[in-house]
Amino acid sequence: MATMKQQVMTRPARDGQEAEIIFRDIEIPAPGPGQVLVKIKRIGICGSDIHVYYGEHSGTSYPVTQGHEVSGQVAAVGEGVAAFVPGQKVTIEPQVVCGKCYPCRHGKYNLCEELKVMGFQTTGTASEYFCVDQGKVTPLPKEMSYDDGAMIEPLAVTVHAARRFAELQGARVAILGCGPIGILLAQTCKAMGAESVLITDVSDHRLALAKQCGVDHAVNTKNVEFGKALADAFGPDKADVIYDCAGNNVTINQAIRCARKGSKLILVAVFAGMASADLFTLNDHELDLDTTMMYRHEDYVEAIRLVEEGKVQLKPLQSAHFPFEKYLDAYKYIEANRETTMKVLIDVDPTQE
Ligand SMILES: [Zn+2]
Ligand SMILES: [Zn+2]
What distances in angstroms separate CA 11 from CA 53, 60, 173, 275, one per listed residue? Predict the structure, then answer.
């Protein structure tokens, strides 16, 4: 019986106690009918994983096997699988949905009433092999690196967010928050037709990285008030849409109070608690406040296309790699290097082939 290692976070870093990640040996699963066995190559760590690390992710209990940003290679296919062949590069879409509820029946399965996400409410991909229904597997181009492949998931988040603004073509876009999602969204908006993008943050390091990725205007709101940054970048008409990729009371109120009257705000970031937002101004200025939740398959397809065509750069956002067995060290690294860290990748299998 062939075995493999599977990551398990048994407890979070909370109440003065260190988090614990163990690796258990389990049997390599055999793909059943309609399933694909994927040899996992890379796993990205994102903000929501960090919430799990600190025990601050409401929908996740322990023990949990993490991993939802992933790339790998088809190792074997089950009966009736014609679309995949062993050796093929792939990524996995981590949503597990019911297929029966109102959103599912209307094509909006990202909003499934019973939504479970791998690595949170159901087993994640952090194991040497992962067996999954073929419908969750998406092929990656041969030329794409496994590092980039593991970032298709966060890029799909930003493709979905960009598409929430129907008039993106030729638009002036402002983005609050210069983390990986903010920088990916800025690149996505430009790739999908925005005329010009302003991004703001309070970290010069992060703003410099955004510039390096081709963002037109990058402004530190510790030094320049957001309303002035908007006017400097776009003139008196300001932005056509403002995306909040930071998600705190400061940024959401900057967006509400500085937006052009009648324009659109889109909340991308996940708020940690109850917001204190200026609903008087939101109403008085007839602002549209919209939201965005994960992605659907078509967003993956578009994300892959944007990388393939060289319209989005992922490499500058890849801050560090850790071997599979050093999973816990990856979190400690992120903790110690908050400001300078973008995406940390776990090399479950470090090879490129
Ligand atoms: Zn993620
Ligand atoms: Zn559903």
Answer: 8, 11, 41, 28
Angle at which helices 249-258 and 226-234 pack, to 10 degrees? 50
SS3 label, residue 105: helix
**pTM of structure:** 0.97
One DSSP character per residue, 285-336 reads: TT-EEEE--S--HHHHHHHHHHHHTT-S--GGGEEEEEEGGGHHHHHHHHHH
Per-residue pLDDT tens over the stretch 110-157: 999 999 999 999 999 999 999 999 999 999 999 999 999 999 999 999
Distance between Cα 73 and ligand 1 center (Å): 20
User: Residue 223 C-alpha to ligand 1 middle, in angstroms?
Assistant: 31
Distance 102 CA to ligand 2 centre (A): 7
Rounded alpha-carbon distances, angstroms, from residue 27 to 8, 24, 91, 182, 219: 15, 10, 22, 40, 51
Looking at the CA of 105, which ligand is closest? 2
18 Cα–ligand 1 center, Å = 22
pLDDT in tens, 311-348: 999 999 999 999 999 999 999 999 999 999 999 999 99
| Inter-helix orientation angle 297-308/180-191, to 10° | 80
Closest CA to 18 of 49, 66, 53: 53
Ligand at shortest distance from the CA of 106? 2
- DSSP-based three-state secondary structure for 282: helix
Measured in Å, residue 295 CA sits from the centre of ligand 2 at: 14
β-strands 172-176, 20-27: how paired?
unpaired
